[in-house]
Amino acid sequence: MNYRSIADMNAAILHGMHHLPADLELVVGIPRSGMIAAQFVALLGNIQLSDLDSYIAGRIYTSGVTKSEGMRPVSDQRRKVLVIDDSINGGTAMTDARARIADAGIDDNLIFAAVYGSKPDHPQADIVFETVSWPRLFQWNFMHHKFLAKSCIDIDGVLCHDPTNDQNDDGAVYTEFLGAARPLYRMSRPLGTLVTSRLEKYRPQTEAWLKAQGLVYDKLVMLDLPSKAERQRLGVHGSFKGKFYRDDPAILFIESENRQAVRIADIAGKPVLCLETHQMIYPSAKSAEGQHLRSEPRLSRRMAKKVAYAVLGRDRVAAIKRRLLG
């Protein structure tokens, strides 16, 4: 699972700016995600900015006083314009942008670009900054991705804000929080399994809140312990989630906290998207080998070795064995 954050996008654009003409007069973003990329390019190059709809209508964004100093004016003649989107796969959005501009009778010198492409060259784009193959997710669109239906998803810190220390009293104040929790990442697609360290006794309040938000999900898995104190004593937040994810066919776990994300990935032997750092956490080599050797008890030892070799490679498996055997 390949993941790119907004910080990654900024870095990719910064490293790829040399591919763009030095005399660009205007950057046009393809809404909505392409506007993030357009903003970065326009700010880095101090170039005037517009979105596709405004550009077709003949409008350009105004700039702040400090930004306008040294900014190249947009000429009345045939202009050099960059039209950019965040990513390209099939090329439908880019093809549509080209057609709309042509239909509007605009005769500028146009360059079409995407920050991320599923392959190095796309016929619809003149420039691709970075190749990111499938399966892939982006920070700005994971909330709307079809992978959500095949994922395990945390609640607090993902679907809603975490409770404050004062709210998390395992009593009346916490119950009030559960009913009035503020939504955080708003998911627009059906979800797989919600896996939360909330206690089972709070299922009615949790289900009521999920229904009120209009969230559709397969099932809700909660921690079956009597109290917050017992949960803290056992410290099973990450292991509880990791063990469920390990035995579930889900392809991704979306977790709010980095420490738990690392634990979940190591136990499950599968990737975890951490929203605290906006990084994809992968299992360590040692835990991955152990997971694949344990994941299917009915597998023969010979087959288990094949799985480990396929995932880790022979050299890494041999190195791990040397460490384990001293």
Report what the structure shows.
With 326 residues, the chain is α/β, with parallel strands linked by helices. It has helices spanning 6-16, 34-45, 52-56, 65-68, 92-103, 172-180, 203-212, 228-234, 237-247, 258-268, 285-294, 301-312, 314-324, and strands at residues 2-4, 26-29, 48-51, 80-88, 109-117, 127-131, 136-138, 151-153, 191-199, 217-223, 252-255, 272-274, 279-281. The protein has a 6-stranded mixed beta sheet with strand order 10-9-8-11-12-13, with helices on one face. Strands 3-2-4-5-6 form a 5-stranded parallel beta sheet, sandwiched between helices. Strands 1-7 form a two-stranded parallel sheet. The chain is elongated and about 75 Å long. Residues 288-300 have low confidence and may be disordered.
In short:
With 326 residues, the protein is of the alpha/beta class. The protein contains 13 helices and 13 strands.
